[in-house]
Amino acid sequence: MDVVGIDGCPKGWVAVRLVDGRFDGARFCPTLAEATSMAGTVAVDIPLGLLDHGWRECDGLVSALLKGHASSVFRIPPRRVVEADGYEAANTLCSELTGKGLSRQSHALFPRILEADALREAGVPELHEVHPELSFRVMAGRPLRWSKKTWNGQAERRRLLDSAGILPPDDLAEAGSVPVVDVLDATAAAWSAHRVATGAAQCHPDPPQLDGAGGPVAIRC
Q1: Which of 66, 117, 122, 144 has a CA 20 to 30 Å removed from the CA of 214?
Q2: Within 13 A of 39's CA, how many CA atoms are on the CB side?
């Protein structure tokens, strides 16, 4: 069974491949299309499914599950906001459509969201949205103690991946100049991709919302 987990990183994406549930390499890819070509079942840490109106329900539900780490979840506004030209225009439109402003951190994700959206609309491969912090939380069976940006947090996540039998090697040179935390997140995404492939993954919300094209909007873990 061949799966891949993908996380955004500086200048591109990092993809981690699992074969039969075991770590089989990590590499840097400049485009999401290249990263998704590595396996049949693909899980990516990027919002998938843009709504015509309102906010995505799954973002709020996942945020509520991640006690102490809810700031890692960005609420994604309607498609027209994501497609707006520039932050000021997007922020104004977001206020008009939702009654709330737009953070610059959320806006910084929009180019990646649109890259994934175009690939999703093409339908090959089928993409599954995951959130690594939720994947780690499910692995642990409890909220994690430390932020992933700290030494303790990365050690905690390494222990979880080690227990799952998918700890990446210390030498991550094959992944290029990619921050360790992004490789750990991509590995957690791959763990969820394996759960999707085996039918073990849960979906938040279940049943999912539908986007403007009638596709599901949910985060799997």
Answers
A1: 66
A2: 26
CA distances from 62 to 59, 111, 171 (A): 5, 22, 32
Q: d(Cα 78, Cα 67) in Å, to the nearest integer?
A: 26
**pTM attached to this predicted model:** 0.93
Distance in angstroms (rounded) separating the CA atoms of residues 134 and 112: 20
In a domain, 215, yes or no: no
The answer to whether residue 113 is domain-embedded is: no
CA distance 125 to 116: 11
CATH number of the domain to which 156 belongs: 3.30.420
Residue 133 lies in a domain: yes
**How many domains does the chain divide into?**
1
Report pLDDT digits (tens) over 123-168. Answer: 777 899 999 999 999 999 999 999 999 999 999 999 999 999 998 8
* Contacts for 25 with CB less than 8 Å, ≥ 6 apart: 16, 17, 174
Our measurement of the distance from residue 160's CA atom to the centroid of its chain's CA atoms, rounded to an integer in Å, reads 18
First to last CA, the chain: 18
Asked if residue 63 lies in contact with residue 37, where contact means CB atoms within 8 angstroms, the answer is: no
Residue 12's domain comprises 2-46+125-198
Decide if 117 is inside a domain: no
